[in-house]
Amino acid sequence: MLEELQRLEPFRAEVRGWLAANLPSDWRRRMLGASEADHVAFQEWWFGKLMAAGYGAPHWPAEWGGSGFSFAQQIVLYEEIARAGAPRLIHYFVALHHVPGTLLHWGTQAQRERHLPAVLSGKEIWCQGFSEPNAGSDLASLRTRAVRDGDHYVVNGQKTWSSNAHHAQFSLLLARTDPAASKSRGISYFILDMKTPGITLRPIKQMTGASHFNEIFLDDVRIPAENLVGPEHEGWKVAQSTLSSERGLSILELAERMKQGFALLLADARVPGPDGVPYDDAETRRRLVDIHVRIEALRVLVNNQLGAVLRGEALGVAPSIVKLYYSDLLRDFTHLGVAIRGIEAQHLEDVLMGGPNETGYWMQDYLYSWAWTISGGSSEIQRNIIAERGLGLPREPAAA
Q1: CA 235 centroid distance within chain
Q2: pLDDT computed for residue 183 by the predictor
Q3: pTM score over 0.85
């Protein structure tokens, strides 16, 4: 992997030069405490800049408007974007990764032609309608029902933890179409137009004060049969394509951003506290060393996973290990930031919209870090996957 990346040094220099010339130096000031509307507008503008340079959809095939970059080129690009401290494309994550990962494999030609160009135009934001109140990480337990009625499906149920659903035009939706089938069978996959009558959104207030997540209530929502993705009752298979579409690149970006964010911890530790004494006492130095070592270990884990992808090897439980490791590390990282700043950190500050998970506004960062122990598969589920599929331990007993 190292040799292949070394051959891409001219490409790395090109990306680095473009970011230096085009990344607004004041974007953090503009997005600190920005409104939702201003953030959405800025995200669309930044995405347009990336698309014009060929960096907005590096993993998309050229025939569908992407750059068709090799996997090694994608690694370089994500590394440089993270190292430059560029804003994260939070609003476009599902649209850029999950939508093509699903439609290019399972979608009809009409579905691809309708949605893929619209995503790359920056005009379509997507969300996911997978998790439910009683089916979070265990998606096979979902209860939302879809019943065929002529050329439509009538859907009733509830979804939760849907990021950016209040901004989305469309949703990737899972619903049960055969209630008599076993848990992972009888599920179908749909494209849901979020303007369809019968949809009610309820923001979920987080302890940070934000409402990034939403509940989606579906009451007799009619979805055209042409919006079925893949075969009826085979939605579980389709969903596996959705969930495996990132191939570790998002966690690569997060690991690189965390490495850059470590400088914020060091800077805060050197600032004198209220008593005039810097925070870099022996215990703080020990904790800083511990975090630094764990960041380097995370980067090794991520590089090993990416190397396996480059070699065409099966990943096994590696993604679960990396996700669990990152979630625990992020929580401890941001908690140390709160501890270093002491009483000065004991209040909520403005949110850096589009910023990394380690912005230096430590109380906001720390409270949000707990979301990472739930989103993308809870830490408990990741431990079960590692234990059962990786270590061969007995399966967890089913609930009575």
Answers
A1: 21
A2: 75
A3: yes
Render pLDDT for 180-233 as a digit per residue (tens, 0 to 9): 887 778 999 999 999 999 999 998 877 777 777 899 999 999 999 999 999 999
Assigned domain for 109 exists: no
For residue 164, pLDDT over 70 is answered with: yes
The single residue listed with the structure tokens 């032609």 is 113
* CATH code, 192: 2.40.110.10
Instruction: Go through 357-392 and write b for each residue having 16 or more CB atoms within 10 A of its CB, e for each that does not.
Output: bbbbbbbbbbbbbbbbbbbbbbbebbebbbbeeeee
> Quick one: 14 exposed, middle or buried, by C-beta within 10 A (0-12, 13-18, 19+)?
middle
Q: Tell me the backbone φ, ψ of residue 34, rounded to 5 degrees.
A: -65, 155
- Phi/psi at 398 (5° precision): -70, 150
Non-local (6+) Cβ contacts of 384 within 8 A are 396
Coarse DSSP helix, strand, coil percentages of the chain, rounded to the nearest 5 percent: 50, 15, 35
Q: Looking at the annotation, which residues are catalytic?
A: 246
Amino acid at 133: P
Domain boundary among 73, 88, 103: 88
Beta partners for 159?
Answer: 216
